[in-house]
Amino acid sequence: CVPVYGGSGVAQQISELKRGTEIVVCTPGRMIDILCTSSGKITNLRRVTFLVMDEADRMFDMGFEPQITRIIQNIRPERQTVLFSATFPRQVETLARKVLNKPVEIQVGGRSVVNKDITQLVEVRPESDRFFRLLELLGEWYEKGKILIFVQSQEKCDALFRDMIKHGYPCLSLHGGKDQTDRESTISDFK
Question: Where does the Helicase ATP-binding domain lie (predicted)?
Fold first, then answer.
């Protein structure tokens, strides 16, 4: 098995691909980089028998639709394709219709069902009020356990990280703009 992903050295990944493998686990962007760089000399996708796409909805959210489409076009049509998605937006449904032959849909739980152990609260606030409200919520919840905060972009993640540190909250930031070593270290530290 060869992992092929950005944020870590491509030379090692290319070396492992050249030796041959039965399984490649990849991110779309890095796979396209390798395919384009090598014109198919390092690896090609013509012998792929099974294609598994996990978190297809998230890949579309992150703008990987062109890369996914290009990868699929390079794989032989008589493959078995499995697509996993937490949600099923129109883009994913369109892709599924294009790339799946006689698909079987397996739905776990109802559509839009939330884990019963999770409480979701939504507060609509002007941008200018959000950070101070976050500080209020942290005052209530900080001592009760670990907290994950999701933001819209890498830039907002970095800005929030700096603001949290300024306000005395020891925290970590994690996003795709950090190299793989930093991401792994952050995840390990959070655990």
Answer: 1-106
User: What does pTM read for this prediction?
Assistant: 0.55
Tens of pLDDT along 79-126?
888 888 877 778 778 878 887 888 888 777 665 555 677 767 778 889
For residue 48, the number of C-alpha atoms closer than 13 Å in the C-beta half-sphere is 21
Element containing residue 55 per DSSP (H, E):
none
**Cα dihedral 28, 150, 183, 135 in deg (nearest 10):** 170
Query: Taking the mean position of all CA atoms in its chain, how far away is CA 144?
Result: 28
Q: Please list the residues that pair with 69 across neighbouring strands.
A: none
Contacts of 6 by beta carbon, 8 Å cutoff, 6+ apart: 27, 29, 30, 33, 176, 180
37, two tokens: 């760089």
pLDDT in tens, 19-32: 888 888 888 888 88
| 32 contact partners, CB below 8 Å, separation of at least 6 | 67, 70, 71
> What domains does the chain contain, in order, with CATH numbers?
2-99 (3.40.50.300), 127-190 (no CATH)
